[in-house]
Protein backbone atom coordinates (compact mmCIF):
# COMPACT_ATOMS: atom_id res chain seq x y z
CA UNK A 1 0.00 0.00 0.00
CA UNK A 2 2.80 2.41 0.94
CA UNK A 3 4.57 1.90 -2.39
CA UNK A 4 1.30 2.34 -4.24
CA UNK A 5 0.75 5.65 -2.52
CA UNK A 6 4.22 6.93 -3.51
CA UNK A 7 3.38 6.25 -7.14
CA UNK A 8 0.14 8.24 -7.06
CA UNK A 9 0.02 11.38 -9.16
CA UNK A 10 -0.98 14.63 -7.53
CA UNK A 11 -4.31 14.61 -9.37
CA UNK A 12 -5.08 10.91 -8.81
CA UNK A 13 -7.78 9.89 -6.34
CA UNK A 14 -6.32 9.49 -2.87
CA UNK A 15 -5.59 5.99 -1.63
CA UNK A 16 -7.76 6.49 1.47
CA UNK A 17 -10.99 6.48 -0.59
CA UNK A 18 -11.99 9.96 0.54
CA UNK A 19 -12.90 10.81 -3.06
CA UNK A 20 -10.47 13.76 -2.99
CA UNK A 21 -7.44 14.19 -5.18
CA UNK A 22 -4.20 12.99 -3.63
CA UNK A 23 -2.82 16.56 -3.52
CA UNK A 24 -5.89 17.69 -1.53
CA UNK A 25 -5.80 14.80 0.91
CA UNK A 26 -2.82 12.66 1.96
CA UNK A 27 0.04 14.15 -0.03
CA UNK A 28 2.66 15.27 2.52
CA UNK A 29 0.30 14.34 5.39
CA UNK A 30 3.31 13.28 7.47
CA UNK A 31 4.47 16.91 7.48
CA UNK A 32 1.20 18.32 8.79
CA UNK A 33 0.71 19.49 12.38
CA UNK A 34 -0.87 16.72 14.51
CA UNK A 35 -4.34 17.21 16.00
CA UNK A 36 -3.98 18.93 19.37
CA UNK A 37 -5.63 17.93 22.62
CA UNK A 38 -7.51 21.25 22.63
CA UNK A 39 -8.85 20.57 19.13
CA UNK A 40 -10.00 17.10 20.15
CA UNK A 41 -11.71 18.42 23.29
CA UNK A 42 -13.46 21.17 21.34
CA UNK A 43 -14.82 18.62 18.86
CA UNK A 44 -15.93 16.29 21.67
CA UNK A 45 -17.90 19.09 23.33
CA UNK A 46 -19.65 20.19 20.12
CA UNK A 47 -20.44 16.59 19.21
CA UNK A 48 -22.11 15.94 22.56
CA UNK A 49 -24.24 19.08 22.24
CA UNK A 50 -25.78 18.35 18.83
CA UNK A 51 -29.50 19.12 18.66
CA UNK A 52 -32.33 17.24 16.92
CA UNK A 53 -35.88 16.01 17.50
CA UNK A 54 -36.41 12.28 17.04
CA UNK A 55 -40.19 12.46 16.94
CA UNK A 56 -41.60 10.95 13.70
CA UNK A 57 -40.99 13.22 10.70
CA UNK A 58 -44.73 13.77 10.18
CA UNK A 59 -44.88 15.35 13.66
CA UNK A 60 -42.09 17.85 13.06
CA UNK A 61 -44.45 20.58 11.93
CA UNK A 62 -45.54 20.78 15.58
CA UNK A 63 -41.96 21.18 16.91
CA UNK A 64 -41.42 24.41 18.83
CA UNK A 65 -37.77 24.45 17.67
CA UNK A 66 -36.56 24.58 21.29
CA UNK A 67 -34.50 21.43 21.80
CA UNK A 68 -34.30 20.40 25.45
CA UNK A 69 -32.03 18.23 27.56
CA UNK A 70 -34.30 15.19 27.35
CA UNK A 71 -33.95 12.58 30.09
CA UNK A 72 -33.87 8.95 29.00
CA UNK A 73 -34.59 8.14 32.64
CA UNK A 74 -37.34 9.93 34.50
CA UNK A 75 -35.86 12.74 36.57
CA UNK A 76 -38.99 13.17 38.68
CA UNK A 77 -39.14 9.57 39.88
CA UNK A 78 -36.31 7.26 38.91
CA UNK A 79 -33.28 9.55 39.18
CA UNK A 80 -34.53 11.32 42.32
CA UNK A 81 -35.18 7.90 43.88
CA UNK A 82 -31.46 7.05 43.77
CA UNK A 83 -29.98 10.56 44.17
CA UNK A 84 -28.14 11.73 47.28
CA UNK A 85 -29.27 14.83 49.25
CA UNK A 86 -27.29 16.99 46.82
CA UNK A 87 -29.22 15.49 43.86
CA UNK A 88 -26.25 13.55 42.51
CA UNK A 89 -26.07 10.01 41.14
CA UNK A 90 -23.10 7.82 40.20
CA UNK A 91 -22.52 7.35 36.50
CA UNK A 92 -19.92 7.16 33.76
CA UNK A 93 -19.43 10.29 31.65
CA UNK A 94 -18.77 8.93 28.17
CA UNK A 95 -16.58 11.63 26.67
CA UNK A 96 -12.93 12.26 25.90
CA UNK A 97 -12.21 14.53 28.90
CA UNK A 98 -13.51 11.86 31.30
CA UNK A 99 -11.40 9.17 29.64
CA UNK A 100 -8.31 11.35 29.88
CA UNK A 101 -9.07 12.28 33.49
CA UNK A 102 -9.35 8.62 34.54
CA UNK A 103 -6.27 7.26 32.75
CA UNK A 104 -8.11 5.57 29.91
CA UNK A 105 -10.79 3.87 32.02
CA UNK A 106 -14.50 4.54 32.38
CA UNK A 107 -15.05 5.16 36.08
CA UNK A 108 -18.34 5.97 37.89
CA UNK A 109 -18.34 9.49 39.28
CA UNK A 110 -20.92 11.86 40.75
CA UNK A 111 -23.24 13.53 38.23
CA UNK A 112 -26.06 15.97 38.94
CA UNK A 113 -29.48 14.60 38.00
CA UNK A 114 -30.03 17.55 35.66
CA UNK A 115 -27.14 16.25 33.54
CA UNK A 116 -27.55 12.50 34.08
CA UNK A 117 -28.99 10.46 31.25
CA UNK A 118 -29.77 13.48 29.09
CA UNK A 119 -29.39 14.14 25.40
CA UNK A 120 -30.57 16.94 23.13
CA UNK A 121 -32.83 14.65 21.13
CA UNK A 122 -36.35 16.08 21.49
CA UNK A 123 -37.98 19.46 21.30
CA UNK A 124 -39.87 20.64 24.38
CA UNK A 125 -43.27 19.86 22.82
CA UNK A 126 -42.53 16.27 21.86
CA UNK A 127 -40.52 15.49 24.98
CA UNK A 128 -43.63 16.42 26.97
CA UNK A 129 -46.22 14.74 24.70
CA UNK A 130 -44.45 11.48 23.92
CA UNK A 131 -43.41 10.65 27.48
CA UNK A 132 -46.17 12.09 29.65
CA UNK A 133 -47.40 8.52 30.27
CA UNK A 134 -44.10 7.91 32.10
CA UNK A 135 -43.53 11.28 33.73
CA UNK A 136 -47.08 12.06 34.85
CA UNK A 137 -48.68 8.66 35.47
CA UNK A 138 -48.02 5.83 37.90
CA UNK A 139 -46.11 3.03 36.22
CA UNK A 140 -48.38 0.02 35.77
CA UNK A 141 -46.74 -1.55 32.73
CA UNK A 142 -49.32 -0.48 30.14
CA UNK A 143 -48.55 -1.09 26.48
CA UNK A 144 -48.10 2.65 25.95
CA UNK A 145 -45.67 2.97 28.88
CA UNK A 146 -43.57 0.03 27.67
CA UNK A 147 -43.56 1.51 24.18
CA UNK A 148 -42.49 4.93 25.48
CA UNK A 149 -39.58 3.35 27.36
CA UNK A 150 -38.51 1.57 24.17
CA UNK A 151 -38.92 4.63 21.94
CA UNK A 152 -36.83 6.79 24.26
CA UNK A 153 -34.04 4.19 24.57
CA UNK A 154 -33.89 3.76 20.81
CA UNK A 155 -33.80 7.50 20.13
CA UNK A 156 -30.89 7.93 22.54
CA UNK A 157 -29.00 5.07 20.87
CA UNK A 158 -29.47 6.54 17.39
CA UNK A 159 -28.23 9.88 18.72
CA UNK A 160 -25.18 8.13 20.18
CA UNK A 161 -24.43 6.18 16.99
CA UNK A 162 -24.68 9.35 14.91
CA UNK A 163 -22.24 10.96 17.33
CA UNK A 164 -19.99 7.92 16.99
CA UNK A 165 -19.95 8.37 13.22
CA UNK A 166 -18.95 12.00 13.61
CA UNK A 167 -16.21 10.99 16.05
CA UNK A 168 -14.82 8.37 13.69
CA UNK A 169 -14.85 10.91 10.88
CA UNK A 170 -12.87 13.26 13.11
CA UNK A 171 -10.49 10.39 13.91
CA UNK A 172 -9.43 10.31 10.25
CA UNK A 173 -7.43 13.45 11.04
CA UNK A 174 -5.45 11.58 13.68
CA UNK A 175 -2.90 10.52 11.06
CA UNK A 176 -1.61 14.06 10.60
CA UNK A 177 2.12 14.21 11.22
CA UNK A 178 2.48 10.41 11.17
CA UNK A 179 4.44 8.13 8.85
CA UNK A 180 2.65 6.64 5.86
CA UNK A 181 2.41 3.17 7.42
CA UNK A 182 0.66 4.65 10.45
CA UNK A 183 -1.65 6.62 8.18
CA UNK A 184 -2.71 3.41 6.44
CA UNK A 185 -3.37 1.71 9.80
CA UNK A 186 -5.48 4.60 11.12
CA UNK A 187 -7.53 4.96 7.95
CA UNK A 188 -8.18 1.21 7.78
CA UNK A 189 -9.19 1.13 11.46
CA UNK A 190 -11.65 3.99 10.88
CA UNK A 191 -12.99 2.32 7.73
CA UNK A 192 -13.75 -0.91 9.58
CA UNK A 193 -15.31 1.00 12.48
CA UNK A 194 -17.54 2.97 10.14
CA UNK A 195 -18.54 -0.20 8.32
CA UNK A 196 -19.87 -1.58 11.60
CA UNK A 197 -21.52 1.74 12.46
CA UNK A 198 -23.24 1.80 9.08
CA UNK A 199 -24.73 -1.65 9.67
CA UNK A 200 -25.84 -0.73 13.20
CA UNK A 201 -27.38 2.57 12.12
CA UNK A 202 -29.27 0.88 9.29
CA UNK A 203 -30.77 -1.63 11.74
CA UNK A 204 -31.60 1.03 14.33
CA UNK A 205 -33.23 3.26 11.74
CA UNK A 206 -35.28 0.30 10.48
CA UNK A 207 -36.47 -0.28 14.05
CA UNK A 208 -37.18 3.45 14.36
CA UNK A 209 -39.34 3.28 11.21
CA UNK A 210 -41.39 0.51 12.82
CA UNK A 211 -41.73 2.37 16.12
CA UNK A 212 -42.71 5.59 14.33
CA UNK A 213 -45.47 3.68 12.55
CA UNK A 214 -46.65 2.09 15.80
CA UNK A 215 -46.64 5.47 17.54
CA UNK A 216 -48.63 7.23 14.82
CA UNK A 217 -51.19 4.40 14.63
CA UNK A 218 -51.11 3.88 18.43
CA UNK A 219 -50.89 0.12 17.90
CA UNK A 220 -48.76 -0.33 21.01
CA UNK A 221 -49.71 -4.00 21.31
CA UNK A 222 -47.20 -4.75 18.51
CA UNK A 223 -44.53 -4.41 21.19
CA UNK A 224 -43.83 -7.35 23.52
CA UNK A 225 -42.41 -6.83 27.01
CA UNK A 226 -41.42 -8.61 30.19
CA UNK A 227 -41.69 -6.64 33.44
CA UNK A 228 -39.77 -7.59 36.58
CA UNK A 229 -41.21 -6.01 39.73
CA UNK A 230 -39.09 -5.73 42.87
CA UNK A 231 -40.32 -5.16 46.41
CA UNK A 232 -38.29 -2.00 46.93
CA UNK A 233 -36.67 0.76 44.85
CA UNK A 234 -33.60 -0.36 42.92
CA UNK A 235 -30.21 1.24 43.62
CA UNK A 236 -29.66 1.60 39.87
CA UNK A 237 -31.40 3.18 36.89
CA UNK A 238 -30.79 2.12 33.28
CA UNK A 239 -32.04 2.90 29.78
CA UNK A 240 -30.42 1.17 26.82
CA UNK A 241 -30.75 -1.04 23.74
CA UNK A 242 -28.76 -4.08 22.66
CA UNK A 243 -28.40 -6.57 19.84
CA UNK A 244 -27.50 -9.57 22.04
CA UNK A 245 -24.97 -11.98 20.59
CA UNK A 246 -25.52 -14.57 23.31
CA UNK A 247 -28.35 -15.41 25.66
CA UNK A 248 -28.04 -15.71 29.43
CA UNK A 249 -27.03 -19.38 29.05
CA UNK A 250 -24.04 -18.28 26.97
CA UNK A 251 -25.49 -19.77 23.77
CA UNK A 252 -24.80 -17.77 20.62
CA UNK A 253 -28.06 -16.49 19.15
CA UNK A 254 -26.85 -13.89 16.63
CA UNK A 255 -23.68 -13.36 14.60
CA UNK A 256 -22.82 -9.70 15.07
CA UNK A 257 -19.77 -10.02 12.84
CA UNK A 258 -21.88 -10.89 9.79
CA UNK A 259 -22.84 -7.42 8.56
CA UNK A 260 -24.92 -8.89 5.73
CA UNK A 261 -27.53 -10.25 8.16
CA UNK A 262 -29.86 -7.97 10.11
CA UNK A 263 -29.77 -8.46 13.85
CA UNK A 264 -32.64 -8.08 16.31
CA UNK A 265 -32.67 -5.60 19.18
CA UNK A 266 -34.07 -5.49 22.70
CA UNK A 267 -34.57 -2.31 24.75
CA UNK A 268 -34.21 -2.52 28.52
CA UNK A 269 -34.92 -0.09 31.35
CA UNK A 270 -34.45 -0.24 35.11
CA UNK A 271 -36.09 2.36 37.35
CA UNK A 272 -38.08 2.90 40.52
CA UNK A 273 -41.56 4.29 41.07
CA UNK A 274 -43.70 4.69 44.18
CA UNK A 275 -41.75 2.30 46.39
CA UNK A 276 -41.11 -0.45 43.83
CA UNK A 277 -38.28 -1.28 41.46
CA UNK A 278 -38.92 -2.26 37.85
CA UNK A 279 -36.90 -3.79 35.04
CA UNK A 280 -38.57 -3.81 31.62
CA UNK A 281 -37.33 -5.56 28.48
CA UNK A 282 -39.23 -4.64 25.29
CA UNK A 283 -38.95 -5.78 21.67
CA UNK A 284 -40.86 -5.99 18.40
CA UNK A 285 -43.39 -8.80 18.40
CA UNK A 286 -41.71 -10.23 15.28
CA UNK A 287 -38.38 -10.78 17.06
CA UNK A 288 -38.10 -14.53 17.69
CA UNK A 289 -34.42 -14.28 18.65
CA UNK A 290 -35.21 -11.81 21.44
CA UNK A 291 -37.92 -14.13 22.79
CA UNK A 292 -35.25 -16.81 23.06
CA UNK A 293 -32.97 -14.31 24.84
CA UNK A 294 -35.71 -13.43 27.34
CA UNK A 295 -36.60 -17.08 27.94
CA UNK A 296 -33.02 -17.72 29.05
CA UNK A 297 -33.30 -14.82 31.52
CA UNK A 298 -36.52 -15.89 33.19
CA UNK A 299 -35.09 -19.39 33.78
CA UNK A 300 -32.56 -17.94 36.23
CA UNK A 301 -33.43 -18.68 39.89
CA UNK A 302 -35.37 -15.85 41.50
CA UNK A 303 -32.70 -15.18 44.13
CA UNK A 304 -30.09 -14.67 41.37
CA UNK A 305 -32.11 -12.39 39.08
CA UNK A 306 -31.01 -9.08 40.63
CA UNK A 307 -27.30 -9.93 40.54
CA UNK A 308 -27.59 -11.25 36.99
CA UNK A 309 -29.28 -8.07 35.84
CA UNK A 310 -26.72 -5.95 37.69
CA UNK A 311 -23.86 -7.64 35.86
CA UNK A 312 -25.74 -7.33 32.57
CA UNK A 313 -26.45 -3.61 32.98
CA UNK A 314 -22.95 -2.55 33.92
CA UNK A 315 -21.35 -4.68 31.20
CA UNK A 316 -23.77 -3.86 28.39
CA UNK A 317 -25.30 -0.42 29.04
CA UNK A 318 -23.38 2.86 29.04
CA UNK A 319 -26.50 4.64 30.30
CA UNK A 320 -26.40 3.08 33.79
CA UNK A 321 -26.62 5.12 37.01
CA UNK A 322 -26.49 4.10 40.65
CA UNK A 323 -27.20 5.49 44.08
CA UNK A 324 -24.17 7.18 45.72
CA UNK A 325 -25.31 5.71 49.06
CA UNK A 326 -25.39 2.22 47.56
CA UNK A 327 -22.04 2.79 45.84
CA UNK A 328 -20.43 3.93 49.11
CA UNK A 329 -21.79 0.83 50.87
CA UNK A 330 -19.93 -1.50 48.47
CA UNK A 331 -16.62 -3.05 49.36
CA UNK A 332 -13.49 -2.18 47.40
CA UNK A 333 -13.74 -5.61 45.76
CA UNK A 334 -17.34 -4.96 44.66
CA UNK A 335 -16.49 -1.53 43.24
CA UNK A 336 -13.45 -2.94 41.46
CA UNK A 337 -15.62 -5.67 40.00
CA UNK A 338 -18.12 -3.14 38.65
CA UNK A 339 -15.24 -1.22 37.09
CA UNK A 340 -14.17 -4.41 35.34
CA UNK A 341 -17.74 -4.98 34.13
CA UNK A 342 -17.79 -1.52 32.61
CA UNK A 343 -14.43 -1.96 30.92
CA UNK A 344 -15.19 -5.47 29.66
CA UNK A 345 -17.05 -3.96 26.72
CA UNK A 346 -14.44 -1.40 25.71
CA UNK A 347 -11.09 -3.23 25.87
CA UNK A 348 -10.57 -3.81 22.15
CA UNK A 349 -6.90 -4.74 22.03
CA UNK A 350 -6.08 -8.12 23.51
CA UNK A 351 -7.52 -9.63 26.66
CA UNK A 352 -8.50 -7.40 29.58
CA UNK A 353 -5.87 -7.41 32.30
CA UNK A 354 -8.52 -7.74 34.99
CA UNK A 355 -11.44 -10.10 34.69
CA UNK A 356 -14.98 -9.74 35.96
CA UNK A 357 -15.44 -11.96 39.01
CA UNK A 358 -18.93 -13.44 38.78
CA UNK A 359 -18.64 -14.90 42.27
CA UNK A 360 -18.83 -11.39 43.77
CA UNK A 361 -22.29 -10.93 45.27
CA UNK A 362 -24.37 -7.80 45.79
CA UNK A 363 -27.27 -7.14 48.12
CA UNK A 364 -30.31 -8.17 46.14
CA UNK A 365 -33.70 -6.51 45.97
CA UNK A 366 -36.46 -9.10 46.28
CA UNK A 367 -38.21 -10.06 43.05
CA UNK A 368 -41.97 -10.25 43.61
CA UNK A 369 -43.38 -10.66 40.08
CA UNK A 370 -42.52 -11.40 36.45
CA UNK A 371 -45.24 -10.25 34.08
CA UNK A 372 -45.50 -10.45 30.32
CA UNK A 373 -47.23 -8.05 27.94
CA UNK A 374 -48.44 -9.24 24.52
CA UNK A 375 -46.07 -12.21 24.65
CA UNK A 376 -46.60 -15.96 24.68
CA UNK A 377 -43.36 -16.53 26.61
CA UNK A 378 -44.01 -18.65 29.66
CA UNK A 379 -41.88 -18.97 32.74
Highlighted features:
alpha+beta; 11 helices; 10 strands; disordered N terminus; SEC-C domain-containing protein; SEC_C_motif
How would you explain this protein's 3D organization?
InterPro entries: SEC_C_motif. This is SEC-C domain-containing protein. Pfam families: SEC-C (PF02810). It comes from Chimaeribacter californicus. By secondary structure, the chain is α+β, with helices and mostly antiparallel strands. It folds into 2 domains: about 1-30, no CATH class; about 45-375, no CATH class. The protein is about 40% helix and about 15% strand. Helix 5 packs across helix 6. The termini are far apart.
Summarize the structure.
This protein has 379 residues and is α+β, with helices and mostly antiparallel strands. It is 41% helix and 16% strand.
Amino acid sequence: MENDKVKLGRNDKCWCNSGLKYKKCHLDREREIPVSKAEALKFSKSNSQRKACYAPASMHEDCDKRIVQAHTLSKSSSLKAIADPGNHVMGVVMNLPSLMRNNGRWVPEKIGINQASTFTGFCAVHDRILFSCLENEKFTGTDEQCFALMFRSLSKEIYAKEGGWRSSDFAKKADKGKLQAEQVYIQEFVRLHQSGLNAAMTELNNLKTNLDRILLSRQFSEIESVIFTFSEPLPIAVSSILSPERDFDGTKIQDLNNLTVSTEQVCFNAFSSEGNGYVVFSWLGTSAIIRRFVRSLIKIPTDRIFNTLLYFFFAKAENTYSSPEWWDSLSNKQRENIGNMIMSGVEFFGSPTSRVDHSVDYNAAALVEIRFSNSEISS
